[in-house]
């Protein structure tokens, strides 16, 4: 029996993600919550003849949506328009995330929480701080979803030459915005065939891929379908790990809690004291089992430089999220 709640289920991401989750063989119950239309979306999905039971909850019924949830996936919040950075979303989304985190702390304190809402570099720290203040934070159970960056990387490398066969050698670490997104491509054999110009163009496209969608949607929002796919991929991998499958490794943005295997090594390899970061993480029934820190030893010089730029910006984004909660007490 696995219940998953989607908070922000009626939105551009929420609807296609909920559709994909309705097809999941690993779920028994899907609770859809939004400030608008959740009951309508739930009724619509409930007519699909798969075994997942779907229910919808209005604005005032966060408690029912969350009670008994094993997983909570959060795409609630406003998306970018052309000319905006993800940080520009902070003003509105920080408050939304804080309220939802308080709900999770109260009604589903043991759930695994997957945060999609931007700016991820700050919303995950907000979530962590609220759960910590409520005395229910467990670093193994809070994930910022950065999967779309890797999905894009695996897609875009083939826009250059058709020779990238070794996609499993590709990674994206750091955070989820512009320069904090650090593509790690040098382990793939094809990387050596790129000119410096091609390499830079490829890395830039991965870092700023979100802008392409924002521009093409021309004011109507940002990536929704590719994000729903990416979140679904992550959820399915996590559900497999929860069911006991071993060897599942995914990139995700987590709090670096020293009790987690590999975190001490990560901290010794990163200068400047970054407390949250996206890295490849081994998943298990308890969530984050271990951080695969070895990747940090394998960066080439160019990747090290990108990583240093990323961690400086990340620190500012993280502090902004934490201060939003601690400063408002
Ligand atoms: P959207 O506006 O289409 O949908 C957002 C939904 O959230 C709406 O249905 C809205 O009613 C709901 N909502 C607002 N406040 C709420 C609250 N307090 N409780 C519950 N629901 C609430 O936006 P979208 O395109 O689905 O994007 C959602 C968020 O995801 C944005 O912040 C966007 O930047 C982010 N995003 C993240 C990634 C990533 O890689 N992590 C990728 C794409 C988009
Ligand atoms: C993305 O990477 O597509 C999302 O973070 C949405 C955005 O604002 O670009």
Describe the model.
The chain is an alpha/beta fold and 329 residues long. Helices cover 42% and strands 17% of the residues. The chain is built from eleven helices and eleven strands. It has helices at 14-22, 38-46, 62-66, 90-107, 120-133, 147-156, 196-207, 209-217, 225-242, 263-269, 301-326, and strands spanning 3-7, 29-33, 53-57, 71-74, 112-115, 142-144, 171-174, 181-184, 249-255, 276-284, 287-291. Strands 3-2-1-4-5-6 form a six-stranded parallel β-sheet, with helices on both faces. Strands 9-10-11 form a three-stranded antiparallel β-sheet. Helix 1 packs across helix 9 (225-242), helix 5 crosses helix 11 and helix 6 runs antiparallel to helix 7 (196-207). The longest helix is centred in the C-terminal third of the chain and has 26 residues, at 301-326. The protein starts with a strand and ends with a helix. (2S)-2-hydroxybutanedioic acid is lined by residues 79-80, 86, 118, 148, 210, 213-214, 222-223. (2S)-2-hydroxybutanedioic acid (LMR) binds next to helix 8.
């Amino acid at each position: 029996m696995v219940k998953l709640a989607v908070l922000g289920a009626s939105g551009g991401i929420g609807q296609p993600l909920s559709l994909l989750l309705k097809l999941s063989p690993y779920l028994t119950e899907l609770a859809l919550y939004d400030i608008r239309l959740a009951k309508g979306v739930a009724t619509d999905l409930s007519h699909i003849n798969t075994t997942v039971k779907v229910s919808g909850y209005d604005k005032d019924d966060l408690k029912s949506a969350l009670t008994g949830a094993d997983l909570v996936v959060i795409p609630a919040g406003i998306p970018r328009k052309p000319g905006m950075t993800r940080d520009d979303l902070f003003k509105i989304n920080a408050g939304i995330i804080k309220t939802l985190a308080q709900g999770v702390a109260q009604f589903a304190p043991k759930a695994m929480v997957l945060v999609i809402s931007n700016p991820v570099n700050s919303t995950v720290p907000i979530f962590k701080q609220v759960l910590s203040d409520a005395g229910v934070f467990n670093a193994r159970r809070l994930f910022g979803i950065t999967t779309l960056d890797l999905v894009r990387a695996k897609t875009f490398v083939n826009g250059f030459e058709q020779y990238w066969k070794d996609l499993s050698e590709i990674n994206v670490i750091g955070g989820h915005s512009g320069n904090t997104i650090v593509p790690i491509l040098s382990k793939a054999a094809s990387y050596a065939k790129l000119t410096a110009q091609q390499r830079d163009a490829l890395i830039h496209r991965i870092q700023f891929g979100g802008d392409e969608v924002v521009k093409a949607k021309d004011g109507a929002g940002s990536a929704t379908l590719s994000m729903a796919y990416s979140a679904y991929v992550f959820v399915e991998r996590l559900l497999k790990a929860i069911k006991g499958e071993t060897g599942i490794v995914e990139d995700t943005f987590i709090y670096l809690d020293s009790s987690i295997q590999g975190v001490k090594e990560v901290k010794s390899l990163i200068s400047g004291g970054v407390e949250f970061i996206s890295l490849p993480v081994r998943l298990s029934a308890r969530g984050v089992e271990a951080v695969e820190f070895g990747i940090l030893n394998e960066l080439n010089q160019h990747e090290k430089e990108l990583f240093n730029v990323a961690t400086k910006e990340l620190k500012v984004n993280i502090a902004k999220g934490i201060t939003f909660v601690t400063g408002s007490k």
